[in-house]
């Protein structure tokens, strides 16, 4: 367990470059090229985190000010994903999350039930989180472990299903996202896209950044949109002129810098991705192979960022207006891009569709986050988490409001047999999808 905790403590910006380097060597990359890839990926992730921190540092206080202006008193505090991941890894299930995730991944690769090799070990905290909640709900450590296993299977299958969308829209060959926050929302985007296509007039709306820029010229550029959204949020927060302007420039900077940081990261990943493709072609003719990564490399797309910024005031309004909601969105407002980044490819970058679907998903998620808040708070206490000042009950949007969290908690009420049957059904579905894809088109 000490080794696992040491790996967790290193964090993704250290662990991922090492794994990329080792993976590159395994794929017969030259030593210098593998080292360069690993270091470049690490630099890219640090750059992405710096830009996201810029967004968090400016958007978080603005969101808090908006809520204060409304005079709303919501009793459950959204502590954000960093706290949630620490609570997850600090649980009894969390200590085993990485070996469990690796074992499930290797087993499914061997059986041909997934094409994804998930090297994003840090984000195994998502399966630790659901496992920890189920262990509390059922008062059973082993039910928590079983839940983590099933959750990992689901994420790998969703990664396979979304891989083509990721590759076609974002242009990332041989990459998939088995990310606990992003992947489940793909299942919401699919039916919503069909609904939009069925509505006259709405189905014809072109609302991607390219169409917006073409129609509005310089006013449609991503930095100008970021500036405008920042100014609007600043006004709603009740800021003075200086603070409004500073927030506007900060959001404009995020719109410009985040895609560039992602391009640095991809500069390191592309040689490894190409080497993986060649390796699989030679040794496993006819098989596809994906590298499973953090969906952070997708959040820099202009459609993702623009949709996310528009959703900030909408999510806060929903929190205030929805009867029965007790969660105050705060810590995870800046991570809304992770919630919508796998919706965006389904909608082909359509900001309108992404915002509407994001609002529906997060609106439902607020009720989920409210419902699990007692279990979340217990898990935090068990992990010796230091609660924010004046906070007695906590939750989060990531992954506290995630539909997959709710599904797994519901299934756990059926006991171990119910969870096993659920896992078998998932495997059967994965096998069916594999056979269906292998059949020639008539």
UniProtKB/TrEMBL annotation:
Q: Which GO terms describe its biological process?
A: phosphoenolpyruvate-dependent sugar phosphotransferase system
Short name of one Pfam family for this protein? EIIC-GAT
A GO molecular function annotation here is: galactitol transmembrane transporter activity
* Residues passing through the membrane, by range: 6-27, 39-59, 79-112, 119-137, 143-163, 216-239, 245-269, 289-322, 328-347, 354-372, 406-432
Q: Does the keyword DNA damage apply?
A: no
**Residues covered by the PTS EIIC type-2 domain:** 4-439
What does the UniProt keyword field contain?
Cell membrane, Membrane, Phosphotransferase system, Sugar transport, Transmembrane, Transmembrane helix, Transport
Location(s) in or outside the cell: Cell membrane
Q: Mainly resides where?
A: membrane
What InterPro entries does UniProt report for this protein, alphabetically? EIIC-GAT, PTS_EIIC_2, PTS_sugar-sp_permease
Membrane association type = Multi-pass membrane protein
Q: Name one GO cellular component term.
A: plasma membrane
- By what name is this protein known? PTS galactitol transporter subunit IIC
Give the species. Answer: Novibacillus thermophilus
The beginning of the lineage is:
Bacteria, Bacillati, Bacillota, Bacilli, Bacillales
